[in-house]
Design goal:
By secondary structure, the protein is α/β, with parallel strands linked by helices. It is built from six helices and 16 strands. Helix content is 20%, strand content 28%. Strands 3, 5, 6, 7, 8, 15 and 16 form a seven-stranded mixed beta sheet that branches. Strands 11-10-9-12-13-14 form a six-stranded parallel beta sheet. Strands 2-1-4 form a three-stranded antiparallel beta sheet, with no helix packed on it. β15, α6 and β16 form a beta-alpha-beta unit.
C-alpha cells in the first residue's frame, strides 16, 4: 500500500510517498480504507525530532483517520465491512500511523463517522475533539462559570469553547483580532487579542490551548488552570494548582463526540486538503501558524 513515510527526522521535505507492507490484522482489529488523515502539531513535533520519540524506519506518521471498514477480525463486534468510521491512533504506541491508504488497529480506537459530514472531512474530528473533551474533564466547574480559553480559534480551542458555551458557561476568548467575528458568532462573550488586556482574578478557570502561561493571573484565587501545551507550566499559586492534560485513545468518547457533530452541536472546520505527495507542503502550512481549520491528507 502507499503511505507517507519518513526515513529520518528533519524538515518537511523528509516526508515522501513509498510502498509499505500493510499491517497484519489481529482478531480485534478492523482494516480501514482511508478517506483522509489529518495533520496535527504532534506529527510536526515527531517528524522534526522535537519530541524524543524513538521511531522504527520507515515510519508512518499520523493520529487522525476517517474511512470505510473493509475487513474485521473474528472478535470484532462493533463494526462491519462498509461502515464509515473515524479513529484516533496514537502513532508512537503503534508501528504505523494514519498517513496510509489503509489503517489497521483495534476496534476500540474507532467510532462510527457522524452523519451530515463528508467522510474525508470527518478526519478533522478525532484528535482535536478528544483533546478538548479530556482537557475539560480535568477541571470542575459550577453552573455558569466564567472561563477564558486561550488559542480559542485553533482546532482544540474552538472545540473547547463550543463545548463550554453549550454547557452554559460564560466564555471569553484569547485569540487573534482577526478571529473576533467568528468567535463571537460561536457564542464567546468577548475576544481579547493580548493577555495584558485581561483583568486579574476575573475567571473561575483558564483552559489554555496556546501556552499563554501568564493567563493564570486572570484566574480567581482557588480557581482552575489546565493546559495542553508542552512548554513550562506556571507555578502553583493562590490556591491554584495548574494541571496538564494529555490526550488518550478513546473510541467510546469519540462516539459521543460523533453524536454531537451529527446533531450539529459541534463543528470542526477544514482549512485545506493535500494529496499524499503534497505532505511536505501540508506540514509547512501548519507549521507557519494561523491556520483556521484542519489540514487533511487525501490518499
Amino acid at each position: 500500500m502507499k503511505a507517507v513515510v519518513i526515513t529520518a527526522k528533519g524538515e518537511p521535505e523528509v516526508l515522501t510517498v513509498a510502498d509499505v507492507d500493510e499491517p497484519v490484522a489481529g482478531p480485534g482489529d478492523i482494516t480501514v480504507s482511508v478517506a483522509a488523515a489529518a495533520v496535527n502539531p504532534v506529527d510536526l513535533k515527531t517528524r522534526s525530532g522535537f519530541l524524543p520519540i524513538e521511531l522504527t524506519y520507515p515510519a508512518v506518521l499520523g493520529w487522525d483517520v476517517s474511512g470505510t471498514v473493509v475487513a474485521v477480525g473474528q472478535s470484532v463486534t462493533r463494526f462491519a465491512p462498509g461502515d464509515t468510521v473515524i479513529g484516533m491512533v496514537a502513532q508512537p504506541a503503534h508501528r504505523f500511523g494514519t498517513y496510509a491508504e489503509r489503517v489497521v488497529a483495534d476496534e476500540s480506537l474507532f467510532a462510527h463517522a457522524p452523519t451530515g459530514v463528508g467522510v474525508a472531512h470527518a478526519a478533522a474530528i478525532p484528535l482535536a475533539s478528544l483533546t478538548a473533551v479530556q482537557q475539560l474533564d480535568k477541571i470542575t466547574l459550577s453552573a455558569h462559570s466564567s472561563v477564558l480559553v486561550t488559542g480559542a480559534a485553533g482546532a482544540v480551542g474552538r472545540i473547547a469553547s463550543a463545548i463550554l458555551i453549550g454547557r452554559g458557561h460564560r466564555v471569553d476568548a484569547l485569540a487573534r483580532e482577526s478571529d473576533t467575528e467568528d468567535l463571537l458568532a460561536l457564542g464567546a462573550r468577548r475576544v481579547f487579542a493580548k493577555p495584558v488586556d485581561l483583568q486579574a482574578g476575573e475567571y473561575d478557570a483558564v483552559v489554555d490551548t496556546a501556552g499563554v502561561v501568564e493567563t493564570i493571573d486572570s484566574v480567581r484565587d482557588g480557581g482552575a488552570y489546565v493546559s495542553i501545551e508542552d512548554g513550562d507550566q506556571p507555578q502553583p499559586q493562590r490556591g491554584i494548582t495548574p494541571g496538564k492534560s494529555y490526550v488518550n485513545e478513546d473510541g467510546p468518547g469519540l462516539a459521543e463526540i460523533s453524536a454531537l457533530v451529527s446533531a450539529g452541536t459541534l463543528t470542526v472546520p477544514v482549512a485545506r486538503e493535500f494529496g499524499f505527495d503534497e505532505a511536505p507542503q501540508a506540514h509547512a502550512l501548519l507549521a507557519a501558524g494561523g491556520t483556521r481549520g484542519k489540514v487533511l491528507l487525501i490518499p
